[in-house]
Amino acid sequence: MKRKVSMIVLAAGCGSRMGAPKALLRLPMGTSLLEHHVLTMAQATQTTKAAARGSEDPVEIIVVLGASADRARPLIPESARVVENPDFATGMGSSLQVGLRAVAADTEAAIVTLVDLPDTPAEAYRRLLEHSGTEVLARCTWNATPGHPVMIGRELIPRAIAACHDETGAKDLFRELSSQVLGIECGDLLPLGVSGNSDVDTAAEAQAHGLIVPTTGMSDHA
Questions:
Q1: Residue 178: is it exposed, middle or buried by C-beta count within 10 angstroms (0-12/13-18/19+)?
Q2: In this structure, what DSSP letter does residue 88 have?
Q3: DSSP symbol at 73
Q4: Cα separation, 50 vs 196, whole angstroms
Q5: What is the pTM of this model?
Q6: Rounded to the nearest 5 degrees, what angle is found at the Cα of 32, between the Cα atoms of 199 and 208?
Q7: From CA 21, how far away is CA 32, in angstroms rounded?
Q8: 43-90 pLDDT, tens per residue?
Q9: Quick one: which of 111, 157, 128 has its CA closest to 6?
Q10: 181-205, pLDDT tens digit by residue?
Q11: How far apart are CA 182 and CA 169, in angstroms?
């Protein structure tokens, strides 16, 4: 069997500043933000080196849920695999651990993004996929500013899991191995003035991105 690349969306937080879990956000036409991420990732795999390797399923997509998981799960296409983080209240680090532990046994590398980054285009994932490898450590940069998505090779996943704590993901690993981190510039993929690092933390920021915040609020709170 050919190796896979696992693509992970971290969407477990309760969204305390948003007033609702970010996993429940929707685009103006009604599509969920989670579905948008999954479809963008799937689009990225259609014309890449990974897709040409001959495997029937060269890429898997994993969504990590936590707060309001019961409401978020139906918003995710069946093509993606859902895993839940029961410790989501401890911070993003535990969600990254859950996501990385869930990758397939034949995964060559894991690509990770955050649900609150709605502007990431499919081409950014394609550029990362072109550099996949078991020892790679790479990340997209947006006009020379490091950001997400990031890619972690299979051999480095245990170290990434160990580096996670509280609200910190694999930042310490990227800092420790900074000399070998491959930066993939993607700033040219977005309109002038738009950055792939523009996250959505508040209801006002969501509305500025054209996203719809659920009016029922949070069913889980940390």
A1: exposed
A2: G
A3: G
A4: 23
A5: 0.91
A6: 40
A7: 12
A8: 998 755 444 555 456 889 999 999 999 999 999 999 999 999 999 999
A9: 111
A10: 999 999 999 998 888 988 999 999 9
A11: 18
